[in-house]
Amino acid sequence: MTLSDRVLMGPGPCNPYPEATAALGRPMLGHLDPEFIALLDETCDRLRAVFSTANALTFPVSATGSAGMEASIVNFVGPGDTVVVGVNGVFGGRMVDVVQRTGAKAIAVEHEWGQPIDVQRMLDAHPAPAMYGMVHAETSTGVESDIAAMAAHKGDALMLADCVTSLGGVDLRIDEWGIDIAYSGTQKCLGVAPGLAPLTVSPRAVERLIPVPPSWYLDLNMIAKYVTGGGARAYHHTAPISMIMSLHAGLGVVLSEGLDAVRERHQAAGDAVKSGMQDLGFELFAAEGHRLAPLSSIAIPEGRLAALSEADVRTRLLQDYGIEIGGGLGPVAGTVWRIGTMGHTARQRNVTTLLAALADIID
Predict the structure, then answer these.
(1) C-alpha atoms less than 13 angstroms from C-alpha of 184 in its C-beta half-sphere
(2) In which element (H, E) is residue 95 found?
(3) What's the DSSP call for residue 15?
(4) What angle do CA 354, 355, 357 make, to 5 degrees?
(5) Are 53 and 190 a contacting pair, CB within 8 Å?
(6) CA dihedral in degrees (279, 284, 288, 290; nearest 10)?
(7) CA-based R_g, the chain, Å
(8) If pLDDT is split at 50, 70 and 90, which confidence band does 232 have?
């Protein structure tokens, strides 16, 4: 089956770093092989560097980012607990859904799409929740919320952060900001294929692990005995060997370039998208001062596309130019585009190509 080589400028996945792709073809090892254990340990060390944390329980969950979200919730809350969740897009809503499935009470603090989470409204929602949950970088709207300010006022509650679209591309300091639990995905700013969910858990949160959570596969009590077990590793499930090799390589690219340099590259590419789209007659959807660098949300003024629909334009971009961008979700479906500049895709050459292709289609 012949597959196309796309320029992936949607909300994810991005184009992976070549080193991450090449690593998928490395010789297979067993999940208890000493060589693989050494590689896994180094991968976890590299994740600590990117998360800016010293948390011992930092590792890639063997599934995509949504499994990271589920592991971050089912291991810490259940019936009798209250969780306050900031909702300003799709992924805050998903967090509410998972909390409710544990039997805990979820208080959804709803915000207008395109706006950041209001910390005071979160604090006013309940006097003493077991957990605050918040999306640092909302992929459905391109909004970055002040997770540090929320964590600073968490009190005795655990602070949970969705960092799927921020890890590696936006300033993130787990320990300094006091974030207890954070999860991400490999397919965004880390420049690796989808398939793993980087997760980090503070010692404070480890003390509150539910002894027998409702998920066997995501039970952190058991998984920790494998990923932090020292010389003797307790088998829980077969690790996705090749994906972890790929993540190891992708993190190596990020750390070799330097976290600051990688974030600056993401910022520059995101800025170029935003200014270029405004030059083409489009508008920025996310609130000023809270616009994500790796993901630009672009509002489409009425009449700007003439007889074309926004879906027509995305289809022509994909078919004629091999460029993928994303459409809007929920209440902004059909009126917003989501343009990602993440991982290996976050380069000026891709932005220039996209803007020229759009100009050719709509002008």
Answers:
(1) 31
(2) helix 90-101
(3) P
(4) 65
(5) no
(6) -120
(7) 20
(8) confident
